[in-house]
TrEMBL record:
InterPro entries registered for this protein in UniProt: UTP_pyrophosphatase-like (IPR053136), YgjP-like_metallopeptidase (IPR002725)
Residue ranges of domain YgjP-like metallopeptidase in the record: 50-268
The organism's place on the tree of life at top rank: Bacteria
Region (Disordered): 1-23
Species of provenance: Psychrobacter coccoides
Name of this chain's protein: M48 family metallopeptidase
Length: 276
C-alpha cells in the first residue's frame, strides 16, 4: 500500500452520510460523517493546482488540495462522493498503527521510495549479479547465493541491508540533484548551485555549512518529492539566514507557503523512513 494514497474518481457505494453541509474549525478543518464515523479533512488551496486531489496519510490525516478558485461547497460535495474510499483507507491505516519493529530484511517487510510503500522481496539467483530493482510494486533484492550461515539469518540480512543501502544512496544522489535544480530558482539569494553530500543521520534530514554546502540524509529519498523540496529549501534558506530567526521563517514561507503541512507529513513518517 502506498504510504500516501490518492484518489480522483467518484465512488457511489456509500453508507448514509449524516450531514450535507461542510462544517469548519480552525479555518481550514472540515468535517462530515460516514455512518457513525466522523471524518475530518484539511483543505489546502494552491495556485498551481489544476484539479481537486484527496490524500489519506498514514497518520490518518485527510488532506484535500484544490485550485484557489474552488468553492467550499464543491470541495465538500467532492469529498462526499469519495467518502467510502477515504473511510476504508483510514481503517486500513488504523490497523497498521503498531510499534515500528527493527528491520529483519526479509521478504514481506515494507520499504519506502519517494513516498510510496513497497514490499521487500528477497530472491537467490546464482545466474544474476547481486542487485536491487523496483519490479511491479516490489523492491526486489537479488542475492547470488544464500548468506544464511548464521542460525538467526544475520549474514543474509546484512547482505540485503548493504545492497539496499547502496541502492538508496544512488537513488538519493540522483533525486536530490534533480530536486535541487528544480527548487534553486526560487532561492534567488543563492548565486551558484551549492554542492551537497549524502550522509546517513539519525535525527536530521539535512544541514547547511557556513560555506553554503548542503548535507542531505539518504533516508529522505523515501519521502515524497514535496518533502524533499521542503528540506532542500529549508537548508537553502540557511544560506541567507543562519539561524531559525523570524526572518528565516518568513523567507521559508515566501518560497514554500504551505511548508508546515509538508513538514507535518514528513514528521508523521519519520520513524518509518529512518527505521533500520
Amino acid at each position: 500500500m502506498a504510504s500516501r494514497l490518492e484518489h480522483t474518481t467518484a465512488n457511489n457505494d456509500k453508507k448514509p452520510i449524516e450531514d450535507s453541509k461542510p462544517t469548519k474549525a480552525d479555518g481550514l478543518l472540515h468535517h462530515l460523517y460516514y455512518g457513525q464515523d466522523k471524518i475530518s479533512y484539511e483543505v489546502i488551496r494552491k495556485d498551481k493546482a489544476r484539479k481537486l486531489r484527496i490524500k489519506v496519510h498514514p497518520d490518518q490525516r485527510v488532506v484535500v488540495s484544490v485550485p484557489m478558485q474552488v468553492t467550499d461547497e464543491f470541495i465538500h460535495q467532492s469529498v462526499q462522493k469519495r467518502v467510502r474510499w477515504i473511510w476504508q483507507h483510514l481503517q486500513d491505516f488504523a490497523k497498521q498503527k503498531t510499534d515500528v519493529l527493527p528491520k529483519r530484511y526479509v521478504s514481506g517487510e515494507p520499504q519506502f521510495y519517494l513516498g510510496r510503500r513497497y514490499v521487500l522481496k528477497v530472491i537467490v539467483d546464482p545466474e544474476q549479479a547481486a542487485n536491487v530493482k523496483l519490479i511491479r510494486g516490489k523492491l526486489t533484492v537479488t542475492l547470488t547465493h544464500d548468506d544464511s550461515n548464521a542460525s538467526d539469518g544475520s549474514d543474509r540480512a546484512a547482505k540485503v541491508k548493504a545492497l539496499l543501502d547502496a541502492w538508496y544512496q544512488a537513488k538519493a544522489r540522483m533525486v536530490f540533484a534533480e530536486r535541487l535544480a528544480a527548487v534553486l530558482p526560487q532561492a534567488n539569494w543563492v548565486h551558484n548551485s551549492p554542492t551537497f553530500k549524502i550522509l546517513s543521520m539519525k535525527k536530521q534530514w539535512g544541514s547547511c555549512s557556513a560555506q553554503g554546502n548542503l548535507v542531505l540524509n539518504p533516508h529522505l529519498v523515501k519521502a515524497p518529492k514535496e518533502c524533499i523540496d521542503y528540506v532542500i529549501l529549508h537548508e537553502l534558506c540557511h544560506i541567507k539566514e543562519h539561524n531559525h530567526s523570524e526572518r528565516f521563517w518568513r523567507l521559508l514561507t515566501l518560497v514554500m507557503p504551505h511548508w508546515k503541512a509538508v513538514k507535518t507529513e514528513l514528521d508523521s513518517m519519520a520513524e518509518f523512513y529512518l527505521n533500520e
